[in-house]
Amino acid sequence: MILVTGGAGYVGSVLVPELLALGKQVRVIDTLWFENPLPDHPNLELIRGDIRQAQADWLDGVEAIIHLAGLSNDPTADFAPQLNAECNVMATQKLAELAAQKGKRDGKPLRFVFASSCSVYYTATPEAELNMHGKDEATPVSPTANYSKTKRLAEIELLRIAEQVPEFCPIILRKGTLFGLSPRMRFDLVINVFTLNAWKQGKLTVFGSGEAWRPLLHIRDAVDAYIYMLSAPLENVRGEIFNVLHKNYRILELAFWVTEVLEKHRGVSIQVKRDRSVQSGERSYYVLADKLQRQLGFMAERGAAQAVLEIWDALEAGAFGDDPASDPRYYNIRWFKQDQAILERV
Ligand SMILES: NC(=O)c1ccc[n+]([C@@H]2O[C@H](COP(=O)([O-])OP(=O)(O)OC[C@H]3O[C@@H](n4cnc5c(N)ncnc54)[C@H](O)[C@@H]3O)[C@@H](O)[C@H]2O)c1
Fold first, then answer.
1. Other CB atoms within 10 A of residue 338 CB
2. Which of ligand 1's atoms lies nearest the C-alpha of 30?
3. Which of 66, 67, 68 to mutate to test the pocket of ligand 1 (most atoms within 8 A of CB)?
4. Mean pLDDT of all residues in the chain?
5. Counting beta carbons within 10 angstroms of the beta carbon of residue 21, is it exposed (0 to 12), middle (13 to 18) or buried (19 or more)?
6. Per-residue pLDDT tens over the stretch 142-166
7. Which residues have C-beta within 8 Å of that of residue 182, sequence separation ≥ 6?
8. In the chain, % of residues over pLDDT 70
9. Whose Cα sits closest to atom 32 in ligand 1?
10. Sign of the Cα pseudo-torsion (123, 113, 5, 191, in order)
């Protein structure tokens, strides 16, 4: 049995069906803030629950945990900083302690794969070029934003518990910004929103200079990485941090890339507009993914082109209604702002 927290989210709703297809039993814990996109399946147990009230019996029969639940971007973490700290750090620590106790009790290693983020590499600094040098897992990090700070604090907690309990096996995946289709779609991620704007408006706008670097990752490569970590040799992964990304792009380069793909494969002409009047708070970080390949032979292979075309075709087929840009459910921050009661819902 694999326990997946946050299994009804953007990543989880792609990951869980993959695990089921592999014949795994899966238990999902999720507050269902974004409804339930998961299929009914005899091997799937869905518990509507809040990881802030994690219970020991959630771990009964569990051989590995994939921990995705929490606030998942900067705007929501800034909007609800207390909830962000409670979900992303305190609840992660509590769950990890329960996992460590179980590992100790059973005398068996228990993997705990944690959804961290490459955004921990970004630190606001007047010397923007400091963020341009390639970062690897050994680079000291001191993120200051609410979201990335809590991701880093959670990492530290997991590694601390692992020092005390040999049976507790955290594996930390610092994912790049994701893109691609999911049953619980997000249009607040850069490639997804570029594709939506190209489809809706025939143009896409880059705010600020567009020179910021971003590491990007296809959602299905992220899913492959989680699954890979369930069986990778323990001695190579226990207590390790891995960056997971396909490539770093500059935002402007990415915008042109999306338009090129659509022009070439869907015969549409899309304009790129740069709006320098809007400060986008240019978060820039360039991240290296060599360790994952060197240590485990794993590479994130999927580029953006296929994902852009899949999203375009889904939009054309009406998968997200006539006007997804006006539908708050596809944008975490808008969804929370339109009804804060969602955040109290369990
Ligand atoms: N999407 C990205 O680009 C990206 C990049 C790097 C890291 N991550 C991390 O990966 C994880 C998954 O991201 P996502 O894009 O699927 O996010 P998401 O917002 O789509 O999904 C998060 C899920 O967690 C659930 N959840 C939130 N708080 C909870 C709680 N207290 N108890 C139980 N369930 C709770 C929500 O209902 C939702 O289903 C997150 O931890 C995120 O920080 C995401």
1. 11
2. 34
3. 68
4. 94
5. exposed
6. 999 999 999 999 999 999 999 999 9
7. 10, 11, 13, 14, 37, 219
8. 96
9. 50
10. positive
Q: Which two tokens stand for residue 156?
A: 């530290």
The DSSP secondary structure of 214-280, one letter per residue, reads EEEEEHHHHHHHHHHHHHS-HHHHTTEEEEE-SEEEEHHHHHHHHHHHHHHHH----EEEEETTS--
Question: How far apart are the CA of 107 and the centre of ligand 1, in A?
Answer: 30
> Which tokens in the block code for residue 9?
């989210």
Whether residue 343 has its Cβ less than 6 Å from ligand 1: no
The average pLDDT across 120-149 equals 82
Distance CA 120, CA 144 (A): 9
Ligand 1 nearest-atom number relative to CA 49: 33
Please state, as a whole number, how many other Cβ atoms lie within 10 Å of the Cβ of residue 25: 17
Please tell me the predicted confidence (pLDDT) of residue 279: 66
82, two tokens: 């207390």
Per-residue pLDDT tens digits for 155-207: 999 999 999 999 999 999 999 999 999 999 999 999 999 999 999 999 999 98
The dihedral sign for the CA sequence 274, 217, 84, 332: positive
pLDDT tens column, 37-46 = 999 999 999 9
CATH superfamily of 2-344: NAD(P)-binding Rossmann-like Domain (3.40.50.720)
Predicted confidence at residue 281, as pLDDT, reads 61
Say what the pTM is: 0.96
pLDDT for res 283: 80
pLDDT at 126 over 80: no
Burial letters for 265-302: b for 16+ Cβ neighbours within 10 Å, e otherwise? eeeeebebeeeeeeeeebbbbbbbbebbeeebebebeb
- Compute CA distances 317 → 199, 310, 311, 320, whole Å: 12, 10, 10, 8
